[in-house]
Amino acid sequence: MKLNLDFSELVRLAKIMLPEGVNFSLGSSGFDFEPLDIELESGKEISLADLDSGSHLISLQGRQVLLYIRDHAGRFDAALMNPRDGKRFHVAWCKTLEEMRQKNRFERYHATNRLDGLFTIEDPGNHGSEPRSADVALKVCMNCLSKLNYRGSEDKSVRHKVFDKFSLKEFFTDYSTCFKHMPKGLMSEGATGYTSDWKEVSAKTRAAASYICSVCHVDLSSHHHLCDVHHLNGVKSDNRSENLQVVCKDCHRKQPFHEGVFISSEAMAKIQNLRSLQGIFATSSSWQEVLDLTDTAIHGDLLTMQKVGYLPPIPGLDIQNAQHEVIATLEAPWPYQRMGISLYPQVCPGWKIYGIGELVAQYGPSTAGPYNGKYR
Known about the structure:
Largest sheet: 3 strands, antiparallel
Mean pLDDT: 87
Structural class: alpha+beta
Number of helices: 13
Shape: globular
Strand content: 5-15%
Distance between the termini: 50 Å
Number of strands: 14
Radius of gyration: 22 Å
Strand order of the largest sheet: 1-5-4
Helix content: 25-40%
Oligomer: single chain
């Protein structure tokens, strides 16, 4: 059952009261909440058939979710003392989940998109003891990190560092463009920490910079809503000019202290289109420049291709047919190999199109590099 509510008045008031630049929206694709969104905050028991197919990420009805086992019988006290001793949660279709599916134990999992990193675990009790439950900061599955090559996690030494510093909010931020619905938990964040005059400070700062991103230099003068002001030290109340940096929403989420800066697929597509029209992609010749200008959702695949010897792809390339009509726009294509990465299924005759995680699976540590850097 979908809740058909009219939020128009709330949106009008939000535009007046909330600081400009705060990532709050009630658009049809961003905060269209259903009962499912409420269930996911506390954890919803699911079956394999409930989950969306076709992605290495875990998805439920267009929502990014993770899976965890709520039943911690025999490990409940250990998990309370040290979350590392609890059962791991999963963010991707890793080999652990495949093994569980083969053992027909998948129905034990719950799905959630809670952002604070806490999971409700339970001890059902036995021999007369009372059932117990508690919120515990469980740890992420390392196999999941490797599956996505998340922040270079194919490398074992890097994987342990990513594991120790893993943040669910950062993870959901990195993949926010892949999903239609944003997590309900974003609604509780809004303008927290900003000063009362932040709307005016933000507007003046962006106007003074002519709405040009100081990182990628995209001109957003025709799309002010895609232009943010970033607090360099992460303190939202520190509005000293030297602490403020004008950035596009994509560059904003890539900055330190960026977690929680979610960006929709529509907003990212517009930024990429502007970058292309303004010739910004034409100057991206190194791997670091490509990573700076591409969606964080595909960075795991890009890092894999860099490691096996590929030269950098050409970001945001339009693919044309024989009639010179644009039939697709790929996030990261290699034209000479006629292959590329796309967040969504696209039909490009003669091209091999990969989704998130597919290049990691094909060219990861267990396989040989395909071209050893000889081709672009």
